[in-house]
Amino acid sequence: MNNLLCFILIFFLIFIDTGLAADILNVKQTLGDDGNSSIVSPGGEFELGFFSPGSSKNRYLGIWFKNVSNRTVVWVANRETPILDTFGVLRIDVNGNLELVNGRNITMWFSNSTKSSKNNPVVAQLMDSSNLVIRYENDTDPENYLWQSADHPTDHILSGMKLGWDLSTGLERYLRSWKSVNDPSPGNYSFRMYLEGYPQMKVADDSTSTTSFRFGPWDGIQFSGLSFDIPDLNFDLKLIVTDDEIYSKFDVNNNSRPVRFDLNPDGYIELLTWFDNFKNWTFSQYISVLYDECDPYGLCGAFGSCDITRAQSGQSACECLGGFVPRSPEKWKVADWSDGCVHAAQLSCGSGDGFQKIPNIKLPDTQTSWFNRSMSLADCETECRKNCSCTAYSNVDIRQGGSGCMLWFDDLIDMRNYADNGLPLYVRTATKSAVDGSSSKKGGVKILAIVIPVIIGLLALVGVILICLYRKRKLRSKGLVALKPSDDAENENEGKDLELPLVEFEEIAKATNNFSLNNKLGEGGFGPVYKGILDDGQEIAVKRLSKTSKQGLDEFKNEVKCIAELQHRNLVRLLGCSIENGEMLLIYEYMSNKSLDVFIFDKELSMSLDWPKRYNIINGIAKGLLYLHQDSRLRIIHRDLKAGNVLLDHEMNPKISDFGLARSFADNESAVNTVRVVGTYGYMAPEYAIEGLFSIKSDSYSFGVLLLEIVSGKKIRQFYNSKDNLNLLGHAWKLFDEGKFTDLIDEAIMGSCNSSEVLRAIQIGLLCVQPYPQDRPNMTYVVSMLDSENELPKPKQPGFFTDNRVQQRSEYPFYNSESSLTINDLSITVLDPR
Question: pLDDT at position 246, please?
């Protein structure tokens, strides 16, 4: 009984003042965890109180946006020491520190201010900047704050906050990710400023001591290679350097809506804005950090540079700088660029060495650099020539035509090309003569590489045009044009001409407003796609062969051959073509909702694609593939099935598109070996990527990857779980194997999904991505599994389990002791989604 009375008394003392809802906390007040108490900033922008993240029942003291319906926590006090009950109290102790205690009066967190309160009354106040401060009661000067949360950020920085170093005190302000959305304790990733060499900012995976992403060095206007131009927010990102401090901060001078900059649990830097209309945070279209193929740190190794436009046009994303060659040519051919590049000729370390100017590049890692802000560029070159270890030089500041000097003394790591952004880099190469010779040779090779295919293509085109004109006159009464498939090894002639409606070029030009940029829907490996409206009001999509496209006549004829006579509700319809005025045009039915990837990989648009719609899309794609593999006149393997090649009509029904890389099979063929591997990394079956062997099971593998993307909302080529060294397939299998499949489901469909259907879909996806073709279901079985509730076989570990590239040959039976990765002269065509 006495114990009960003591408990009641303690409870009463703890919560005696928990009805508090004030802007200021003083020594006579406490903030308790009773579900109602909080401190609100003067302008009502932010709120301080207790919360439980996600599905966790642990209690934390945090700060969040007051006027955002989806509670978004931007700072956590006791992230390492959660309160396990609801007896938390925040108070000011006798030393002027904030102290958080639990129900047993044990300190869970305190502010640990190093400044003395001098026995003066102090208060704690939450500012409209989200900054929680301890100050003297009658002193509001920020310079005199005794302590502030802005000096100890967690995973967010907001407008006006500093990220960097106070050199006078040794204080470092940096971000540390949450462990997960349910656990705010320190995660694996940090985002901080590194002061070795020229200051720069990096995202690091501290669990593996590796760098994930790096901002290029500050060039006086922006971080090299990164642009944060957001006119509607008046967004301003700066680097501030003084004798006492070096830090970065951003300001949003238009506070029309909340903006936050955070490091998420997966190690991605995000700039997000809140839209009341959608009740959701939206990822800014003006920043891309770890969201494209060139973002991962050091992707191309030493002296290699990444170019996203090359990757999107089907070429290698990485290339060696001029005067350099791949260190491991065999690895380079299969897109393993980790070994980087080496000098094509030995340096002489004298006046004969040349310097190649590389404009518009993200400057390399500056950790081993030296800089001087007052030197000229000419002096910079002279200084670099003096030191045989100097590998490159550049200006420090881009303003006023460039100023200052930066020298590099080691391998040049983590570069990427930009069209119009950044300082030029001057890279040391073998000799002036060698460089000139190399440049001339390279230039000559480039000219030949361009001229010869152009001449051949023009001759072929002239031949096709003459044939078409003849056939056009012959078939004018029918309004048809006949195209004959290519006779090469990749497109064996079936012996039949294909007839397709011919549309006048002038009619297409008129329909697309002369191929206006306003009508452009997107661009792929074949070329741009335009929306058009014919005279009768019919909407069409026009695919126009680009002059710079690696694809051409063969792909044009191949697409016509494969799709002209196909009729299925889940295949896009080819309406006609045009081969006039040196142009190659394909005319399709118009899909108003563009492609599937536009929806499932976008945080905002994915909300409109609930689980029933996604399940319908999965079924439709499966039935479309089944028709291609079994029911069409020609047995067709698509070879490039991915989210970007699945179009959606106005009712969100899927239609498989882009048959430029497809192959037709004879009835007695089960598999074919090709010397030219084409498609998109991540979606290729192991036996196809490695040995060039493809079959209907290759499409099954691609379908499995796509299915897992639809369920998870994650992109195969961008997802990587560094903790377990897993890509999306490995991550999905691990969760399925551990019975945690719900952790894979896209948050956008959590409220609408049928758990048994989702589990079934994941299991089917994993069955489709088995490493051996014989273990994968064909599309007949897939459609049957999707439509039934029968028990499914348990999948094994998927193909390409640990990485997007093959890790060990011994894992795959497609290798033998005699084979190598270059046996098929591997070349990859990566197509952009429309």
Answer: 94
**Cβ atoms of residues 680 and 645 within 8 Å:** no
Q: Name which of 2, 7, 48 is nearest 29 in CA terms.
A: 48
Residue 539: DSSP 8-state? E
Question: What DSSP element (H or E) covers 621?
Answer: helix 611-626
CA distance 712 to 689: 24
Q: What is the pLDDT of residue 18?
A: 38
Q: Are 354 and 438 in contact (CB under 8 A)?
A: no
CATH code, 304-430: 3.50.4.10
DSSP alpha helix (H) spans, 261-356:
308-312, 329-333
Instruction: Give the burial class of 105: count Cβ atoms within 10 A of its Cβ; 0-12 exposed, 13-18 middle, 19 or more buried.
Output: exposed
d(CA 239, CA 249): 7
* The two structure tokens encoding residue 568: 């299925």
User: What are the Cα distances from residue 324, in Å, to 139, 356, 429, 586?
Assistant: 62, 11, 8, 41
Nearest to 200 by CA among 167, 239, 162: 239
Token pair for residue 656?
């498989």
Distance CA(354)–CA(434), nearest Å, equals: 8
Closest by alpha carbon to 525, among 833, 825, 306, 294? Answer: 833
Q: Is the dihedral of CA 609, 611, 612, 618 positive or negative?
A: positive
To the nearest whole percent, how much of the chain has pLDDT over 70?
Answer: 76
3 state DSSP class of 557 = helix
Backbone angles phi, psi at 65, to 5 degrees: -65, 130
pTM: 0.54
User: What CATH number was assigned to the domain covering residues 596-811?
Assistant: 1.10.510.10
Domain 13-152, what architecture? Orthogonal Prism (2.90)
* pLDDT above 60 (res 827): no
CATH class of 453-589: alpha beta
pLDDT at position 497 is 44
Phi then psi dihedrals of residue 425, to 5 deg: -115, 135
Single out the residue of 276, 282, 232 nearest to residue 252, CA to CA.
Answer: 232
- What distance in Å separates the CA atoms of residue 511 and residue 738, rounded to the nearest whole number? 55
Give the pair of three-digit tokens for residue 214.
């790096």
- Separation CA 659–CA 508 (nearest Å): 21
* Range name among 423-427, 567-571, 598-602, 718-722 with the lowest pLDDT average: 718-722
**Catalytic site residue from 307, 640, 699, 832:** 640
Strand partners, 637: 663
The three-class DSSP label of residue 388 is: coil
Check if 640 is active-site: yes
Of 282, 274, 285, 278, the residue nearest 65 (C-alpha): 274
Residues whose CB falls within 8 Å of the CB of residue 172, separated by 6 or more in sequence, listed in order: 164, 165, 166, 192, 193
Q: Which two tokens stand for residue 313?
A: 């046009």
Query: Which residue reads 């058009």 in tokens?
Result: 532
Residue 355 bridge partners (DSSP): 428
Rounded to whole angstroms, how far apart are CA atoms 410 and 387?
12
Strand pairing category for 415-416 and 304-306: parallel
Tokens of 17: 């003042």
Instruction: Say how far apart CA 774 and CA 793 lie, in whole Å.
Output: 14
**Distance between CA atoms of 634 and 625, rounded to whole angstroms?**
12
Pairing of strands 425-429, 354-358: antiparallel
Count, residues in the chain: 834
The boundaries of every CATH 3.50.4.10 domain in the chain are 304-430
Query: Which of 59-68, 550-559, 775-784 comes out lowest in average pLDDT?
Result: 550-559
Ranges 111-120, 144-153, 265-274, 583-592, most confident: 144-153
Which segments of the chain belong to CATH 1.10.510.10? 596-811
Residue by residue, DSSP assigns 538-592 as -EEEEEE--TT-S--HHHHHHHHHHHTT---TTBPPEEEEE--TT--EEEEE--T
Q: Which amino acid, one-letter code, is at 288?
A: S
Which residue intervals of 388-489 are DSSP H helices? Answer: 432-475
